[in-house]
Amino acid sequence: MAPPLWMGYQIRRDALLDRLDEALAHRLTLVHAPAGYGKTSLLADWRRRCEERGHLVAWLTLERDDAEAKRLAQYVAYSIASVDVDAPGDGEVASAAMPARAALSAIINRLAREQRQAVLILDDLHRADSAEALDFLQSLIRLAPRNCHFVFASRDYPRVGQAILAAEGQLLEFTAGDLKFSTPEAEEMLARADGVPLDGEEVRKLVERTEGWPIALQLTLVSLKRGVDRRRFVGGVGGAGSDLAGYLSEQVLRSLPDDVQEVVLRTALLDKVTSAALNLICDRRDGGLLLERLEQQGVPLTPLSPARDAYRYHQLFAEHLRARLSSRDIVQFHDLHRRLARWFARQSDIAEAISHAIDADDGALVADILETAGGWRLIPQGHLGLVERALATLDRADVEQRPMLVLASLYLDVKCGRMDAARLAYDGLVMRAEQGETPPDLWTEIRVVGDILAEYENQPMRLEDLLAREALLRTLPADDHLILANVNESLGAKYLEGGWLERAMEPTLAARRHYQALASPYSEMFTRFHEARIRSSQGRLKDAVAVLSAAQSEVEAHFGARSDLAANCAALQAELLFEQDRTGEAEALLEWALPHMEQSDGWVDVYAAAYFTAARMAAARGDTEIVRSLLERARRLAYRRRLRQLDLLAGLCELELVLRHDAPFAAVRALAEAIGLDALADGMVEESPLYRPVAVAAAMCRIRIALLSGASHSAIDELDAMRRWARQHGAGRLLIDIDLLKAQAHGLVGESAKAQGCFDDAVGTAMFQGIVRPFIDARDAVSPLLDGALAASPDRFRAQFLKGVMRLACTQRAPISPPDALNEAETAILQHLSRGHSNKEIARLIGMSPDTVKYRLKAVFRKIGVSKRQDAVRISGERGLIDAQGALPGQP
């Protein structure tokens, strides 16, 4: 999180520092050059200059395992938080193991609060050069506030979207040509050599032969200080690249005593040299003193902290020495790496242990360390890249012999979207486990990963399977919070999905406690979302609203108001707001949340809440084009993410909306047959249908069709069965819809007293929770019952609720504007269209998604009878909808 404390021999490069100041006028600065050109040293000096001027400067040196986007995002968040530890909430942001997109939102929200110039310096970007890491950085550069600037140092030329930035004049670049030493700079450095300084011609010759390569000149200084023959040395320096680095490294090495040379050779295998590691690898006891001695003798060691308890060699120097040791004795080379791997494993430094095991070319040792460390368990702890790198070194046959590694491999497939490969591997593992003597602890691991796989596949589960999983919980260690959190959360979610609401709450709350024990606020938020869904399904809307309100506050404080978690929360809140007929607030939430969710991970419930709430609001407005667009988007996402339940629910939502808006009966029947309505609805009689939400929605649609076709008695029979199921499972929200349909059915057969009784039951369930939308949707069918209930009600609260419902129903039945009039959003779009803006520009100006603008524009064309943009502008001007300058009438 900070640059290393550099050894001596550095010179200030004021001209480069002055040019680097221009980074504050550019979005992105790239410093790319081969190793040894002083990139880190230059940026460290500039960082100090920026801090002295009061800028916020975050630093992050990257390692190989940071190529995983989630890990990179977490460290970027932590580096920003580390430079301003008093900022509220930043500690939680940095410590939370959240997905990359959520961390991105949290980082951007943190930077948005910053009033100063903010700079993020990433050093050694070439170490984390993966597609997902670079995609994350491109998003960060694109979305960060205007006061943010990014400075990346890399050996290679990274691809972070700089072409667009260059076209916009927002890119600043430094190359090897900019960083090489000039002759005066070389003279200043080499003048520090003991004895008679080099003359101008000797310096010029060195600069010419080294091509100004800073590390070469630095190693030259070290050699001169060792007393080498100056004339022979100056004449012998030649070559380029690694050959030159090797030559100069050899000069440094030869100046050391034989025993110290061996120490330097062996410790070069370490990325971080400590006294304990030195003692281990060199069979010594004086590691601390020896490190001080090496530093004093000018060996290119860099202290990594002010305490000087850890060092690292310059990369080129270390690489040359590793190659030298490997070519001298490959057996010893592998043995030393093997010794380090085991030592780091005992220290629980799994990343270092696996890296050294890989360098030891010892697949069995890699497998042992990975298996002992937990295999698949490392992935949810943020080590996906490490597991992927380790597994890549192993033969498939070796992996197959170790079940924990099979689980790691298939979990990796799951996280990378390779679901078919994961399912094939899992089924094979289960078959082999059943044929052998598998220990109970291993069966637990297999079942847990299998449940995770089933969750990603959105597989249905039977009640007996869930009861077996509940029994499994009682056999798990009480302190294994990772397993217990996963099992409980999955159990609660599946009970909720299956309609067993009375069973869903306990495991959901238990999962929350385990996530709290793991200090994982990100995962904890999902248990709050599940709790809100349970409360809502029970008809306890006010409790659900309170749960989501508290969750929203936590999400905004820890992860940001536009994070993935915030989008999920907003979707669920919008659904509840629509229940209260607060459509304006619901639309405002979904306007930003739904497009955000489409680009991130989610689960069926939250997608359904977002898409179908938006579709129902559009249908209530009569925007059929937007309804079609939303349902088509839901189907595309369902196909892309293999969520069959979401696809089925999209078809049923379409049928429900067609039924509510008086479509021709032939069209209704055709749509019902196309989606296989009867087969889906028949699932209600099963204890564990394929998907309970699908069975419920299908049964309710079939009942509405029966009422539409005059089969009211049949509808009443099915409604009675539905009501028994809903009461048995505590599905209070479903009871409201059932009672309203029963009221309509009894009314159609002339049973007015029963109809009024059913309507009163619905009112009794809904009125204290503020649930009004079902009554508005059913207003045409139950309007006489509403009048009767209001006239007969002596209860002040009931009368107040009924008056509110009547007022809302009347308002929505008789809109102020005629059906073909432009609404407020459409007139705003037309105004911007007349000024020549594209759909994307209009979307940005009014805060809508481009898809929404597109379909609202179609509605505008239909209402004013045109098919082209220019015709829409001309006709609107002629009709006075906009003036000649594109303003609305009455506006300046």
Based on CA atoms alone, the radius of gyration comes out at: 34 Å
Total number of beta strands: 7
Fraction of residues in helix: 55-70%
Please identify the structural class as seen in this structure. mainly alpha
End-to-end C-alpha gap: 53 Å
Q: What does the overall shape look like?
A: elongated
Arithmetic mean of pLDDT: 85
Largest sheet: 5 strands, parallel
Strand portion, in percent? Answer: under 5%
Low-confidence stretches: 85-96, 813-819, 884-892
The largest beta-sheet arranges its strands as 2-3-4-1-5
Number of helices: 48
Task: Give descriptors for this structure.
single chain, 892 residues, mainly alpha, five-stranded parallel beta sheet, two-stranded antiparallel sheet, 67% helix, elongated, disordered C terminus
Describe it for me?
- The chain has 892 residues and is mainly α.
- 67% of the residues lie in helices and 4% in strands.
- It is built from 48 helices and seven strands.
- The strands form two sheets. It has a five-stranded parallel β-sheet, with helices on both faces. A two-stranded antiparallel sheet has the order 6-7.
- Helix 27 (481-498) runs antiparallel to helix 28 (501-517).
- The longest helix has 18 residues, at 440-457.
- It starts with 13 loop residues before the first helix and ends in a 14-residue tail after the last helix.
- 46% of the residues are buried.
